């Protein structure tokens, strides 16, 4: 309802009037009694729009319009102000009803939350204050460098200078302007004149990328931006055709580019710092610019006024002139790959300029002539030098840093765990190439086929300058740029360190990370010349198949061979067969799942456990595996009936598992993508909470769960048991087997803190691990609403095979009825199994539709008087193979090729309402009129990167559900749910989600819910409103402050082996030590460990800040605590870090003790002696970085050896007794 407002003071604005009217419509008279006590009653939303004064300026003409959401509220308001006149700034306002509001505007007000006018007013004031622009006379790109370094400690450090590598003037025949874009958090420099130029360009500097800004005068005023990452470059068509429709005219009118012109393109990969010469006006430009930076939210401390001796001198040394770059590249081509790659990384990662590299190259070439130094040695030395350069003192020159690293460097023989290999990583951004590695990465089928040529394969990903995935604003067209930048690299390859690389393929998971595999062709003695096309052709029989006309599906089938897998066992062709699926298309009950005999499962498990520290003895043998086998993919469950068949069949694969054919293979390996030996923890998350709330789950159920989770996280310091419980619940500390170590210490009658006669083993380093673990848990709770659900599990799905055996003639077979499931949980071999029974809910991630959560019934123990094909299965969820539609397909279109399902038994979270599942039929696969080539695959990758909007759609759905009073049932949310389903299938079907042409619903109001600010660095109050949904209440109810870190060396004065752990272990170790064993190599072993640990801490960071590092405690806990706005990037970084750390831990374990499972008594004694010496050494080096985690590895080996030598039996009285007269183990060092 629209109501006209008259007789207003001319000085008031929209927000003043809004505040006055809110006092009325938000009073108790207008607030209805809530029909549902679980629903938070929202204040009535309305809109005020004042008419501007005809004289201009900020005044109004004394009138305006009030829009209320409904006729009833409007009528009530008119009656109210008639009885109780409303005064605004002392003047009585008059209200008159002219007619109905526009239906869309009234409906939007009705379902959206009221936004505090103070927020909107402050936001508008910011925009007004930042409307001023600065005239730019010249743009210079270059690098900061230090002309000289101090020769001694007393000599003062001279300021850095700026080498101009590219420059263009804009004060003669063109123009440039600097402006602040508050909403986008960027400083934009717009270049070009609309009067004389058809096309202009812009440079966007993100606030978050700015380290320092130097302002001063060098004739003209100048502004220097020292940025962490290069800016974004865009091209603008000044004279585009305008329609008069603002939304349409402002859509994709800017195009992303990689450089301003050809001259800039040469230096852009190496010189991204900016120096602007600004027009000298009548005011102090430097002071005014600093003031506007502070208004925009930039810290005043980062803006430095450079005058006198602190002035930033600018010169043109042309470090990156084409000739200098060409000469360097020629020198690199003459070097072995491992050396040349590291030198390239120093150049491309902007750690050294060409003159510094030329000086370094001379020393490298001298080392190459010395037979003392191997190629591997020099490559590893340069890899460590790269890491040290980032953290060197600002007073130390690069060459002095190299000399120091070379002096202290050692190298040893390291062994990677089975299934891992050393891989180099390349990241292409719009302007540059970033190099990492090599470091441990999980292998795949193709990598294992060419184990002697591993350095010919590199992992390549495509990201924006901040290393996050590409995202475009509505006004930016990025597709053309991606076709040129990403498509050009994919189709034409690239040259690096003297080798030419060409696109090979990708795995399904890597595509989601915008990552692919490249290779450099090589000659194989048996296969001849091996290039990417040769490898693709050997993977399957694709010729003359329909698959070749479907580029996306063809690439997805190739991707099976590149899935990260572990090798297991080979199977002979007569031992496996293909069988029909159960059910009918498109809802097969067995879509993606087959079976294996128990004997074959035993062999697979034995093979997998060969590389594990505990050899699988502390875990339950899996009932299912996710596999890749020839052209098949999916899950196989253990079927004990197969062992009883006389035909010798040990594996049955369904037709739905066959993605392509591979002929003439007698023996083939079963590759394991995942084994399901333990039940995964089931968690709430934001989408699940949003939908459950709308399905009737009470708010206090979520609040209680969060309070319990927070309370448990905060008890991590109480005891060893509590510490271990938190680690187990959140899968932390696994690389270092931290939970296992705590359990062994508890068996020794030790605890974190001394209690009565129980000694406490806590120290500064263990405290840091606890703090990192606690912060990880609390961050996930607050930022992701990640809450553990009691009595609930995340389990891989398999099918009930009963109907298949009934069809084959077997009698008395029990089958699951429709709507029923079977779950048997066993967490460890020592624990008794638990059968779930009763009402449950089941879902799979991502949940986007109200029907994605269904109610089912768990059957408990199956009947004993019938044949049950799944009764032996543990830690899986068995779904029925009967009914109208497969249960998996009802849960967001799932299947059984590896999907994991959340089975919730916890009564307070079971929804009171349920809705029919969505029925999104898959679209036809994108097909072309000819056989596809690798160029078609490359085109699909480019389009996928441009159209990968699943995260955007999911996020928009949650925001709109929060803003709308209809929640997840809002029509926009239901439309977004359908788009999400299409986006999930995009990598395989090839049908992108078109979000242009207004197909993507806009958020209902400008501000976002406060919980959306979780991972935003320095969120601004003006951008968010307080959400009244469960997510908002949960978000605001948890606060914490970063704990003060205890010093690692707080116990450094304590003599070695006098701590409670050593004291308790001494008498058990004493009986087995080998006094004749000498470990002169222990200091070198420790140093190599520390060097690699430093590399892990430097490589797997989220921040772009030079010198940023993970802490040792983060690596041990297996987490990264820094903020990140894209969860995928954090998840990928944590995965890589954990894999890298696991490889390092296993290598140290191997050096201390070889395979313990097959070790004889003497080998166990030697292993125990070596580990004990390493444990003591870690105490002697307690002040050093890495000593704490090195000691944990040694302690784990001690326990392993003692277990093999008869174990540790601790009686209660042992808790009171130390080890008397135990000789120091100095003789072992």
Kindly name the structural category: alpha+beta
Amino-to-carboxy terminus distance? 86 Å
Strand tally is: 44
The main β sheet shows up as: 13 strands, mixed
For this entry, what is the oligomeric state of its chains?
single chain
Rg, nearest Å = 33 Å
How much of the residues is beta strand, in percent?
Answer: 15-25%
What are the defining features of this structure?
alpha+beta, 7-stranded mixed β-sheet, 35 helices, 20% strand, globular, disordered C terminus
Description of the structure:
The protein has 1229 residues and is of the alpha+beta class. It has 35 helices and 44 strands. Strands 7, 8, 9, 10, 11, 12, 13, 14, 15, 16, 17, 18 and 22 form a 13-stranded mixed β-sheet that branches. Strands 28-34-31-32-30-33-29 form a seven-stranded mixed β-sheet, covered by helices on one side. It is globular, with a radius of gyration of 33 Å. Mean pLDDT is 90; it is low at 1045-1052 and 1215-1229.
């Amino acid at each position: 309802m629209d109501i006209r407002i008259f007789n207003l003071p001319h000085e008031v604005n929209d927000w003043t009037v809004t505040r006055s009217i809110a006092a009325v419509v938000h009073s108790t008279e207008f607030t209805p009694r809530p029909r549902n006590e679980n629903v938070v009653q929202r204040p009535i939303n309305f809109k005020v729009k004042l008419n501007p004064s005809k004289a201009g300026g900020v005044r109004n003409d004394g009138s305006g319009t009030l829009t209320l959401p409904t006729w009833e509220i409007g009528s009530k308001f008119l009656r109210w102000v008639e009885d109780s006149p409303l005064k605004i700034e002392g003047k009585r306002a008059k209200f008159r009803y002219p007619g109905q509001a526009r239906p869309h505007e009234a409906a939007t007000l009705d379902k959206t939350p009221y936004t505090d006018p103070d927020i909107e007013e402050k936001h508008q004031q910011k925009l007004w204050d930042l409307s001023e622009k600065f005239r730019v006379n010249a743009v210079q790109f270059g690098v900061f460098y230090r002309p000289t370094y101090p020769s001694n400690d007393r000599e003062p450090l001279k300021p850095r200078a700026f080498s101009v590598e590219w420059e263009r003037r804009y004060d003669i025949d063109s123009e440039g302007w600097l402006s602040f874009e508050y909403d986008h958090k960027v400083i934009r420099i717009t270049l070009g004149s609309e009067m004389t130029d058809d096309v202009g360009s812009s440079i966007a500097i993100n606030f978050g990328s700015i380290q320092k800004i130097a302002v001063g005068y060098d004739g003209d005023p100048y502004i220097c931006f020292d940025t962490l990452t290069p800016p974004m470059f865009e091209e603008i068509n000044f004279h585009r055709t305008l329609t008069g429709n603002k939304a349409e005219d402002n859509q994709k009118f800017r195009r992303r580019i990689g450089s301003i012109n050809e001259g800039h393109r040469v230096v852009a990969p190496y010189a991204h710092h900016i120096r602007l010469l600004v027009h000298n006006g009548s005011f102090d430009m430097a002071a005014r610019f600093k003031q506007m930076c502070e208004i925009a939210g930039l810290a005043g401390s980062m803006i430095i006024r450079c005058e006198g001796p602190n002035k930033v001198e600018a010169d043109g040394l042309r470090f990156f002139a084409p000739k200098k770059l060409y000469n360097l590249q020629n020198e690199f081509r003459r070097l072995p790959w491992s050396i040349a790659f590291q030198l390239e990384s120093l150049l491309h990662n902007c750690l050294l300029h060409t003159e510094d590299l030329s000086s370094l190259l001379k020393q490298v070439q001298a080392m190459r002539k010395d037979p003392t130094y191997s190629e591997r040695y020099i490559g590893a030395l340069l890899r460590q030098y790269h890491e040290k350069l980032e953290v060197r003192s600002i007073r130390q020159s690069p060459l002095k840093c190299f000399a120091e690293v070379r002096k202290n460097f050692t190298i040893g023989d390291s062994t990677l765990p089975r299934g891992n290999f050393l891989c180099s990583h390349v990241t292409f951004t719009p302007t540059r190439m970033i190099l990492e590695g090599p470091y441990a990465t999980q292998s795949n089928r193709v990598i294992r086929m060419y184990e002697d040529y591993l350095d010919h394969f590199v992992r390549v990903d495509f990201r924006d300058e901040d290393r996050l995935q590409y995202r475009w604003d509505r006004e930016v067209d990025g597709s053309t740029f991606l076709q040129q930048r990403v498509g050009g690299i994919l189709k034409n390859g690239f040259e690096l360190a003297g080798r030419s690389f060409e696109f090979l393929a990708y795995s399904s998971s890597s595509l989601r990370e915008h990552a692919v595999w490249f290779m450099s062709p090589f000659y194989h003695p048996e296969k001849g010349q091996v290039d990417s096309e040769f490898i693709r052709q050997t993977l399957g029989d694709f010729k003359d198949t329909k698959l070749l006309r479907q580029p996306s599906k063809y690439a997805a089938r190739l991707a099976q061979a590149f899935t990260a897998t572990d090798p297991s066992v080979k199977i002979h062709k007569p031992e496996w067969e293909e069988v029909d699926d159960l059910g009918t298309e498109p809802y097969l009950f067995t879509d993606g799942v087959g079976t294996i005999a128990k004997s074959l499962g035993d062999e697979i498990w034995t093979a997998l456990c060969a590389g594990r520290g505990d050899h699988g003895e502390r875990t339950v043998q899996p009932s299912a595996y996710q596999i890749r086998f020839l052209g098949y993919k999916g899950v196989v469950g253990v079927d004990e009936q197969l062992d009883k068949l006389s035909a010798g069949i040990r594996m049955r694969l369904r037709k739905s598992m066959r993605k392509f054919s591979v002929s003439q293979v007698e023996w083939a390996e079963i590759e394991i993508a995942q084994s399901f030996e333990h039940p995964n923890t089931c968690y709430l998350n934001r989408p699940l909470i949003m939908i459950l709330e709308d399905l009737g789950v009470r708010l206090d159920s979520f609040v209680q769960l969060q309070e319990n989770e927070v309370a448990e996280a905060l008890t991590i310091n109480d005891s060893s048991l509590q510490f271990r419980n938190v680690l187990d619940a959140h899968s932390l500390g696994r690389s270092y087997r931290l939970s296992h170590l705590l359990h062994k210490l508890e068996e020794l009658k030790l605890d974190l803190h001394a209690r009565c006669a129980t000694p406490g083993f806590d120290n500064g380093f263990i405290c840091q691990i606890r703090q990192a673990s606690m912060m990880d848990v609390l961050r996930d709770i607050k930022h992701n609403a990640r809450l553990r659900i009691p009595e609930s599990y995340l389990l891989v799905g398999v099918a009930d095979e009963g109907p298949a055996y009934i069809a084959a003639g077997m009698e008395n077979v029990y089958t699951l009825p429709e709507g029923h499931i079977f779950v048997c949980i066993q967490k460890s071999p020592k624990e008794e199994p638990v059968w779930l029974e009763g009402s449950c809910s089941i879902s799979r991630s991502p949940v986007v539709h109200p029907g994605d959560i269904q109610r089912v019934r768990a059957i408990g123990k199956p009947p004993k008087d019938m044949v049950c094909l799944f009764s032996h299965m543990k830690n899986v969820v068995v779904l029925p193979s009967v009914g109208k539609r497969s249960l998996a397909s009802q849960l967001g279109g799932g299947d059984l090729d590896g999907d994991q399902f959340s089975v919730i038994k916890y009564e307070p979270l079971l929804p009171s309402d349920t809705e029919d599942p969505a029925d999104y039929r898959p679209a036809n696969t994108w097909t072309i009129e000819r056989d596809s080539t690798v160029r078609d695959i490359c085109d699909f990758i480019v389009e996928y990167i441009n159209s990968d909007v699943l995260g955007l759609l999911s996020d928009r759905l949650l925001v709109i559900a929060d803003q709308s009073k209809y929640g997840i049932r809002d029509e926009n949310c239901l439309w977004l749910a359908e788009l999400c389903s299409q986006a999930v299938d995009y990598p395989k079907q090839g049908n992108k989600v078109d979000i242009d042409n207004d197909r993507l619903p806009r958020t209902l109001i400008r501000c976002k819910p406060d919980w959306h600010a979780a991972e935003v660095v320095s969120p601004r109050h003006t951008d968010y409103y307080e959400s009244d949904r469960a997510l908002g209440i949960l978000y605001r109810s948890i606060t914490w402050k970063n704990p003060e870190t205890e010093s690692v060396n707080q116990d450094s004065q304590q003599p070695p082996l006098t701590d409670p752990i050593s004291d308790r272990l001494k008498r058990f170790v004493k009986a087995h030590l080998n006094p004749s064993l000498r470990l002169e190599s222990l200091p070198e072993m420790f140093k190599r460990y520390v060097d690699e640990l430093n590399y892990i801490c430097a490589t797997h960071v989220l921040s772009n800040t030079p010198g940023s590092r993970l802490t040792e405690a983060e690596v041990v806990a297996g987490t990264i605590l820094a903020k990140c706005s894209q969860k995928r990037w954090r998840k990928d970084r944590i995965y890589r870090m954990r894999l890298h750390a696991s490889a390092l831990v296993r290598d140290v374990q191997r050096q201390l003790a070889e395979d313990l499972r097959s070790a004889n008594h003497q080998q166990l004694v030697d292993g125990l002696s070596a580990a004990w010496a390493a444990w003591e050494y870690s105490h002697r080096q307690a002040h050093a970085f890495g000593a704490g985690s090195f000691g944990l590895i040694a302690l784990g080996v001690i326990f392993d050896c003692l277990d093999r030598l008869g174990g540790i039996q601790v009686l209660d009285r042992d808790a009171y007794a130390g080890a008397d007269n135990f000789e120091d183990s100095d003789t072992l060092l």
